[in-house]
Amino acid sequence: MKNYKISVIKGDGIGPEIVDEAIKVLNSVSKKCDFTLDYKEYLMGGIAIDTTGHPLPQETVDGVLDSDACLFGSIGGEKWDTLPRELRPETGLLKFREEMGVYANLRPAIVYDELVNASTLKPEVIQGCDIMVVRELIGGIYFGQPRANDGFKAYNTMVYTKPEIIRIGKQAFELAMKRDKRVCSVDKANVLEVSQLWRDTMNELSKDYPEVTLSHMYVDNAAMQLVRNPKQFDVIVTGNIFGDILSDTASMVVGSIGLLPSASTGDKTAIYEPIHGSAPDIAGMGIANPIATILSAAMMLRYSLNEIKAADLIEDAIKAVLKDGYRTKDLASFDAKEVLNTTAMGDLIAAYISK
Ligand SMILES: NC(=O)C1=CN([C@@H]2O[C@H](COP(=O)(O)OP(=O)(O)OC[C@H]3O[C@@H](n4cnc5c(N)ncnc54)[C@H](O)[C@@H]3O)[C@@H](O)[C@H]2O)C=CC1
Ligand SMILES: CC(C)CC(=O)C(=O)O
Ligand SMILES: [Mg+2]
Questions:
Q1: Does the global pTM surpass 0.90?
Q2: Domain locations in the chain?
């Protein structure tokens, strides 16, 4: 029987609540599909600061690199917001992504038929929507030097090199080849030099993919188009900050940020994490939607472990649960037959799998 080593980082806020549900579901599907999972927990973010004095302990870096894949919850919270920048949970997360070399963050935004009434957008606008946001994750303005804040003047730097743009562009074109063969590259080339290089490079790269239609859009327009007519998009490729913002926007096309999973991939390892943060406003209340994290676990099975049947079983169980009218609080006003807490939603998805 196959056995996989999974590193687990629960993090802060709702992180532990949602990761526990994903593990519950993984255990249910692994029994059904005849493989086992060995989990090892590592600290990161606020809890790591409180325990070790540092947001990213070396043990976490080594442990994740030694595993087959990493399941990640979320980090951060007000408690740590006043720390110097280099000691903050978010700085630990960025350093973690950089050290793991996970340059491509794949954020699918799929509207399930079962949830077509779960969005504030009209059903006809969103039905059948299936977007893949390919966000560059270890470059751009979140990482660029110089950066500083002296209390009077503050600045950050948006940097991309051509090899970095080619690397992420290739991921987008390759994904598009397996999908509807359309890539929309999002930038701000009317204002930013870095975006002009991004656009020129995408144009050059597109010559290697003649079957794929490449279009370009400014990020402000892209945000508007995402809510106006999301079905016009197939693959969106963009830089770190634009992808961060546009994928949160896309979550409202789907219905809730608690539904969107992601895979952060590179050449060394992969990290599977919901797109949302630690949601301190609802932490400990038992109302967080665990589906984004459970779907991230399904992506882990599909992409890192090649357990395709298991991934399908999870996704089918989620659709069935939603079709039967079970909702967490974030989706309570959309065709809910019964509103479940976080644990009950995890229990139910696990039970549908083992049916
Ligand atoms: N990957 C990570 O670990 C990320 C961490 N953060 C950190 O998280 C903290 C909170 O950031 P926010 O801007 O509030 O973003 P957030 O994504 O944590 O929350 C935004 C809103 O969405 C809701 N929400 C998020 N996930 C949900 C879920 N699973 N179910 C139901 N509702 C959910 C929250 O209750 C909140 O109202 C900050 O410290 C931030 O830096 C933010 C984004 C990503
Ligand atoms: C620390 C932030 C860059 C995290 C975030 O918002 C994200 O990755 O979506
Ligand atoms: Mg974000």
A1: yes
A2: 1-105+266-355, 119-254
